[in-house]
Amino acid sequence: MEQMQILGFIALLAGTAKMAILFSSKTQNKLTSAFALLCISMILQNVFEFLVALTYYTNPDLTALAFKAEIFSLILLAYCLLIFALTLVASKQIKSISLVFGTAALACTYLLFTGKLVQGYEQVAYTVISIKADYHAVLITYGLVITLFVLGIICHSAITASGEKRTRCRQVLIAVIPTTLVILAVSTLRALDFKASVGVFMPLATTFFVAMMATYQSGRIVIFKIKWTVIWKLAASMKDVKLSEWLGLVEELLIKEAMRESDNNQTDAAKLIKSNQTTVGRKFKKYRNEDPELQ
Question: What is the four-CA torsion angle of 212, 145, 140, 80, rounded to 10 degrees?
């Protein structure tokens, strides 16, 4: 298999995986809508990367057009990532910040299609990289600033926020790290005149992000963590608990762990263990009265 065909195959697989995950997700609120928009931008990047690989040896003109479209999709991807992060942390300045970076994205797009951002493309191993034009540094700066800004606001909320918002930010931070590392590494290397490309790594990183987000959205990871903790604590107390007391102990541990994971938010805890909010609140109050450490 030719080197460019390998790149195209990876891009096609990544795009297909994202489409499958996107269609299985439900758009219910602003955050999931922002996530869907981000997914679409990532799929577009995969599609154009696939077209570049597909036409590279047969149609140079179409390859050049597909390559510019791929760079445009990366500009769009960075902007959609910003919107997703602002929506995630519920920023009050979302309109003004998105306007500023939206203007920067439009400027990059104008420079791209007027030939001032890149002059063309060249193959390097398994991928294709851009040939720098006069304003190529604008693209590098755009990518670096957005990536650092996104990491900054998510990290800040993961540390300072509480409840479900803090948990969500921490989950997103884990999911988005590979994508941001690829952007930061490639942008830095290109700024230092190394021949680096998002190439194979970006499709893999963005697919990891989408897959992790779909998993978080279903709540399976937190639920698994709660159940595993309960099983572990049950195993540790087997000798001291009578068989007739096990059901009550399981219920107590489930409620305590759910409340701990949700920072004592009864609504979130009830959702995690699929129980009634009033029941969870009433029983947790009872456990708290019996156990001073829960105060």
Answer: 40
The predicted-structure confidence for 27-63, as pLDDT tens digits, reads as follows 566 777 888 888 888 888 888 888 888 888 888 889 8
Q: Kindly report the CA angle at 32 between 177 and 168, in degrees rounded to 5?
A: 50
> CA dihedral in degrees (180, 186, 191, 192; nearest 10)?
130
159 against 198, higher pLDDT = 159
Among candidate residues 1, 14, 2, the one with its CA nearest the CA of residue 198 = 14
Whether the CB-CB separation of 294 and 256 falls below 8 Å is answered with yes
Contact 269, 254 (CB under 8 A): no
Q: In angstroms, rounded to a whole number, what is the distance separating the alpha carbons of residues 295 and 291?
A: 8
Q: Which residues of 147-159 are buried (b: 16+ CB within 10 A; e: fewer)?
A: bebbbebbeebbe
Q: What's phi and psi for 123, nearest 5 deg?
A: -85, 135
Average pLDDT over residues 245-264: 72
Query: Is residue 219's pLDDT more than 80?
Result: no
Measured distance CA(35)–CA(282) in Å, rounded: 36
Place of tokens 């760079």: 71
Distance CA 46, CA 53 (A): 11
Q: Which residues contact 111 (CB under 8 A, 6 or more apart)?
A: 117, 133, 135, 138, 139
pTM, two decimals, is 0.73
Read off the amino acid at residue 49.
E
Give residue limits of the domains in the chain.
3-218, 222-294
Q: What is the pLDDT of residue 226?
A: 61
CB atoms within 10 A of CB 254: 20
- Would you say domain 3-218 falls under CATH 1.20.1070.10? yes
- Annotate 89-110 with DSSP letters as a single string: TT-TTHHHHHHHHHHHHHHHHH
User: What local confidence, expressed as pLDDT, does residue 108 receive?
Assistant: 94
Structure-token pair, residue 223? 């639920």
